[in-house]
Amino acid sequence: MNLFILSNEVQQFINDNLASDIHKILLKKSPFAEVTSKELVEQIESKSKAKQKLPTWFETKNIFYPNKLNLSQTSSEISAHYKSNLVKGKTLIDITAGLGIDSYAFSKNINRVFHVEKNEELSAIAQHNFIQLGATNIECISTDGISFLKNNPQSFDWIYLDPSRRDKNNKKVYYLSDCEPDVTEHLDFLFTKSNNILIKTGPLLDLNNGLKQLRNVKEIHIIAIGNEVKEVLWLLDKNYSEEPQIKTINFKNETEQIFQFHLNQERSVISTYSRPLAFLYEPNAAILKSGAFEYIGKHYNLNKLHSNSHLYTSGKLISFPGRVFKILNILDYSKKSLKKINTSKANITTRNFPDSVEKIRKKLRLKDGGNSYLFFTTDKDQKLIVINCTQIFK
């Protein structure tokens, strides 16, 4: 950690060049003897990314940023704040703490937070930043999280971990057992140190696989930002043995789309089907990730178009956690019908359909964008159809 980066002159240079061409800066000699051009570019790149992802960090003076790879692996401030509201108590230990975005959020609701990070430089950066942010109840410890727990007699109200989803060759991995640390291997031990464990996993982990590898899962939280699933949170309670509740949230346009259910509710629903009616509904990404394909229809009194399409319809307009469309007309997927599509530009979505979006665009010579929305899907009678819509709620 090069402390010269924190000097007033260097900080001013970084702020003045947030919108500059970093390649030109990299090729030039650094204007500072103690700071290289590469270090300047790393700070500029990471601070630029922090403007949207970590606005509190961006607005705070003298924040030291890690390289952009480390920054890309951190939670966003939105998701960190969300998970901080899932915990309460006197002590929490974050055993894979990284830059400390989550630790800082937890410190708002927990009396004492232990930030444990084995990378010494990252630990030092986090400690410096906590001071700038005024977080005085976080203790930074640079060591391996599991080893620290094994060598420390203390128990905690909460254990939080975000296992690394990259292997020794920096390639992405997707199964819990391939992550570091392997929570499936250490789960029994972790429950000797706390009754409450919160685990963050990536968006690609299959929920059924996660439930098979974990136990005492009380809640699963699926967080999407801008209709893109960012992380899945697994809340484990040592004394819980019932069906887990699944909670989905999509942060979009300063609103929160929330939907929750229990797995037995999804399993007990028998969907109703119909041809497309007046309105079309597409659940947001968090709901689709949750697998609530039947219960979402029952909850909102909607009909499904097909068992595998996961599109829904109604005769009357309702408020819905996802995209909502007014259906203009419905076409068969045939050359004759497709000639009725009188546009050169459209937003295309395929659901349970044999052709790809790319193939459809080429076939119809349609550019992307505009105000037209075309859904290529299969209806309840196994027919390939095209639903021509206009969007109502984004």
Please provide a written account of the structure.
InterPro entries: PG_1098_Fer, SAM-dependent_MTases_sf, Thump-like. Residues 322-390 form the THUMP-like domain. The protein is α/β, with parallel strands linked by helices and 394 residues long. The protein has three domains: 3-71, Arc Repressor Mutant, subunit A (Orthogonal Bundle); 73-242, Vaccinia Virus protein VP39 (Rossmann fold), CATH 3.40.50; 269-393, VC0802-like. The protein contains 16 helices and 16 strands. It has helices at 8-16, 22-27, 37-53, 55-59, 68-72, 77-84, 101-106, 120-133, 145-150, 183-193, 207-213, 263-268, 285-290, 295-299, 335-338, 357-364, and strands at 89-94, 110-116, 138-141, 158-161, 196-201, 217-225, 228-237, 245-252, 255-262, 279-283, 303-304, 312-314, 322-332, 345-351, 367-378, 384-393. The protein has a nine-stranded mixed beta sheet with strand order 3-2-1-4-5-7-6-8-9, with helices on both faces. Strand 2, helix 8 and strand 3 (138-141) form a beta-alpha-beta unit. The protein is globular, with a radius of gyration of 25 Å. The chain starts with 7 loop residues before the first helix and ends with a strand. The mean pLDDT is 93.
